[in-house]
Amino acid sequence: MNTTARAGRTAALLLSPTFLVLALVVGYPLLAALRESLHRSGDELDESGFIVSGDRFVGLDNYADAVGAARFWTAFANTTVFTLVTVAIEVVLGTAMAVVMHRAMRGRGLVRASILVPWAIPTAVSGLLWRWIFQADGVANTLLGTDLLWTSDGWPAKIAVIVADSWKTAPFVGLLVLAGLQLIPNDVYEAARLDGASAWQQFRRVTLPLVKPALLVAVLFRLLDALRMFDLPFVLVGPQKGAVETLSMLAWNEANQVRYGPAAAYSVILFLYVVVIAFVFVKLLGADLLGERRARRRSEVSA
Amino acid sequence: MKRALTTVLAVSALLAAGCGGGGSSNTATGDANGRGPIAFATLKDGTGTVPKLVETWNAAHPDETVRIVDLPEGADGQRQQLIQQAQTQSDSYDVITIDLPWTAEFAARRWVTELPKDQFDVDGYFAAPVKGSEYRDKLYAIPHFTGAGMLYYRKDLLDKAGVAVPKTWAELKEACAKVLALPEAAGASCYAGQFDKYEGLAINFAEAVGSAGGEVTDQAGNPKLNTPEAKAGLDLLVNSFHDGTIPAEAITYKEEEGRRAFQQGKLIFHRNWAYIYALMNASDGSSQVPGKFGVTVLPGVNGPGVSMLGGNNLAVSAFSKKQATARDFIKYLTSAETQRTHAKGSAYPMTRPVIYQDPELQAQYPYLQVLEQAINTARPRPELVRYGDASSVIQEQVYAALSGQTSTEQALATMQQKLTEIAQGT
Amino acid sequence: MTALVRRWAPYLGVALIVCYCLAPFYWMVVSSFRRTSDIFDKSPLPSPWSLENYQAVFGGNNAFGQSLVNSLVVAGTTTVLTVLLGTLAGFALARLTFRFKNLVLSLVIATSMFPGISLIVPLLKLFTDIGWVNTYHSMIVPNMSFALPLAVWNLTTFFRQLPFELEEAARVDGCTPWQAFRKVILPIAVPGVFTTAIIVFVTSWNEFIIALSMVNQPETQTATVRISQFGGVSGFDSPFGTQMAAGVVVTVPLVIAVLLFQRRIVAGLTSGGLK
């Protein structure tokens, strides 16, 4: 009991700087946004044509208006589809990249460098680059022999966003998985090989379970990021296009028309949606995400 | 994990409920008569002419020097940056550059100060841009650059086909029929403007309606889209997409995509601003049409059409503590003398007619007289506080009509209804 | 036949991955070496080659060199602080037994669930009030909002995977938990810490919207903000080639830096006690 109390104090000490920073840069704006979302600033004009200033409390009106709009549900669907598809692609690609990076073979340096390139390019610049590639007379159409209008408001725009996003963020997954791979001692593979396991069996039975914690963290953070996707569709295809508009873009759009109340409402809704997805993810896949059970069992054993 | 998340939410909700206050009060804290060094927020000038003009000013005003602050490229980034500064009532910017259609909104929100008309030489500018800088008959900005759409045409091909430069849409289509029959015009399309879903689409639509003799809204922003003229305007664009007069990929065109198509010889006619003239005349091999094109005013239904006005305004931030210096600097930057120097260094269209009469500049920019004519007949965009919303409605409906998702009647009816709501402030 | 496939399949995989990653970047590099006037070209190599865009990036009054230094300062400081705080928090969460642990972890991750663009306006108001605008820390502290949760989670997972027996052994030798962490756990955890550092560094290096909003003086602006301000000669023509050149300038040092880091990771692995 005494040790637990001391551990608790140590933990509080170690965690407080993190919480201080997060409270300032996230906690405070989050509360400000929650408050904002219950208010609406006036857009009526007074007699001389000035906007009547001051916020008024509107309860949940901003939320009701938001979920009542067809545009919201389109954005909701886009956000969901982009997240599911890009994260799935990124997991497969990222894991493949990690395995390749981990393997000691010739040209490994080149592989590592090239895998990092997409991720290291600033998002805005890569958005411009992909817009360029997906122009009506751009390289994509030339190479594919098609004449699709990738940046117009239609299904090709969705594909363009998915391709560009997977390209850019798969390396992130790759790096995290690589770190997990590097923790696996070589003798584990030796043992598997001695047991006559094929490469695929080694991967499935040995590698995958051991990198699972790292992979799950990577996927979790990719989920959070993808759900808030903003700049890529914005730069690549453009604002106010139903085919690619995400919830973040909706929030941006409202803020850009100086309607901070509705903008905050969209942000809070998105926040709640992310919370739900994260929760479901942890429940479904990540029961062991924190290694809590294993850790507890071990400490019991050692005690 | 589940319980933990629930707790997070409950705590957040409680905190939010108990966290009131902090609302912004919109009292301007600027100083109308202050003087001193100021910051000029503007878009970066690739030719470097504006920095030189600022240096000249700084040399003459050592106590009131001007520092240039670059705004992000593109209207969205520029607007976001300006709104954020206003929202925090920051005095980081003294003179700001705003898009012409934002003037009413910035004035109504008290983000920019009124400018005394008697202090500014308002008669020395084109009338339409000055009108566009007013809100409720008071002046809030000074036109810095202006612009009007013009019709570029392939002079070489028109000559070869023996057709005259068209003044109406019917003539334009006839000309195309003849020109496209030429072997030199193989693979080309007749016409394109800007039809991607952005501000340019609202402008191209307004020009189509204007050229058919109608108007999208009156100056106060009340829509006039339930008219035969409005239908004729939208039908013109929709039908042109249908029959291939406008190529399908033009639905992705902004200014630069259109210029590229024209200078690669893919278009016979093209609506664009003045800036493309010099670029398309470049003889370094980048353009395939140098010396092969001409420029004229936009076509209409029964004679010359109407252009919408583009351009940038200079305004004084209401949060500036050195507004007297800011006003003086705006006067300097838009004076006839400065504009003449400016015009020599960069192709931005200036806002004073006297510049367009300068023989030297006419030689430098051969399109100057056509441009002057276009500006003289151009319409400012409506004086709407919620211009951004109005433009979104127009973009949404016109884009849907052009891509065949809705009929022109339906699109016009929806616009009429929504724009009425916006104009009435509901 | 199968042997042949087994021998060459990995190389085929490598080739595919390299192509996939580098093809768009190749196009970026090629575009950056074209003249502004032939930027529309689609030939696989620029003709003629031109350094015009690179001159434009560093020339004039862009102050691009200064902005690279600013980016380095901001991303570097963010990384050091984040990894430091994240390591402390990660250690506590992974290795100490205390109540509300899951609540703490949930709170940490919940902070990275709020859309970043909605954090800006309240923060800008706050920073204006306390006079932080136009400073490095007005960028560094908000950058930690997205970097810290990731660092804490990643490091927690990482520390947890290390065998508990190590600490037990250390404790038997008379180490306090903190000493055990510092002398036994941390050295083995080097790859995890470096990976976290790389990720934090790259994300902060590429951060745009916070840097754009918090700073409006050229002397403190970061490279990504500078790139967004490159102007054309007319207001409509975006200087695409210059932006691509700037993108290359910003990307290449990053990749080199990361590769150097990676060598350290491998070194850390072999010197660790895991084998």
From TrEMBL, chain A:
Q: Which domain of life is it from?
A: Bacteria
- TM helices/strands, residue ranges: 12-31, 81-101, 113-133, 169-185, 206-224, 263-290
Query: Does the entry feature the keyword Cytoplasm, yes or no?
Result: no
PROSITE patterns this protein is in? ABC_TM1
Q: Which residues form the ABC transmembrane type-1 domain?
A: 76-281
Protein location: Cell membrane; Membrane
One annotated Gene Ontology cellular component of this protein: plasma membrane
The record gives the membrane topology as: Multi-pass membrane protein
Alphabetized Pfam families for the sequence: BPD_transp_1 (PF00528)
UniProt keyword list = Membrane, Sugar transport, Transmembrane, Transmembrane helix, Transport
Q: Its Gene Ontology biological processes?
A: transmembrane transport
Q: Which family does it belong to?
A: Belongs to the binding-protein-dependent transport system permease family.
Q: What is this protein called?
A: Multiple sugar transport system permease protein
> What is the source species?
Goodfellowiella coeruleoviolacea
Q: What is the lineage of its organism?
A: Bacteria, Bacillati, Actinomycetota, Actinomycetes, Pseudonocardiales
Automatic annotation (TrEMBL), chain B:
Q: Which SUPFAM superfamilies does this UniProt record tie to the protein?
A: Periplasmic binding protein-like II (SSF53850)
Please give the InterPro entries that the UniProt record associates with this protein: Bact_solute-bd_prot1, SBP
| UniProt keyword annotations, A-Z | Signal, Sugar transport, Transport
Can you tell which superkingdom this protein's organism belongs to?
Answer: Bacteria
Q: Which Pfam family, giving just one, matches this sequence? A: SBP_bac_1
Signal sequence, renumbered to the chain:
1-16
Gene3D superfamilies this protein is in? Answer: Periplasmic binding protein-like II
* Family, per entry: Belongs to the bacterial solute-binding protein 1 family.
* Protein name, per record: Multiple sugar transport system substrate-binding protein
Automatic annotation (TrEMBL), chain C:
Renumbered to this chain, the signal peptide range is none
Subcellular localization, as worded in the UniProt entry: Cell membrane
PROSITE patterns per UniProt = ABC_TM1
Question: Membrane: present as a keyword of the record?
Answer: yes
Its membrane topology, per UniProt?
Answer: Multi-pass membrane protein
Where are its TM segments located? 12-30, 68-91, 103-124, 144-163, 184-205, 240-261
Known SUPFAM superfamilies for this protein? MetI-like
Instruction: Please provide the record's keywords in A-Z order.
Output: Cell membrane, Membrane, Sugar transport, Transmembrane, Transmembrane helix, Transport
What GO cellular component term, any one, is given? plasma membrane
Q: What is its main location?
A: membrane
The record ties this protein, via InterPro entries, to: BP-dep_ABC_trans_perm, MetI-like, MetI-like_sf
Family statement drawn from the similarity comment of this UniProt entry: Belongs to the binding-protein-dependent transport system permease family.
* Official protein name in the record: Multiple sugar transport system permease protein
Q: Which organism is it from?
A: Goodfellowiella coeruleoviolacea
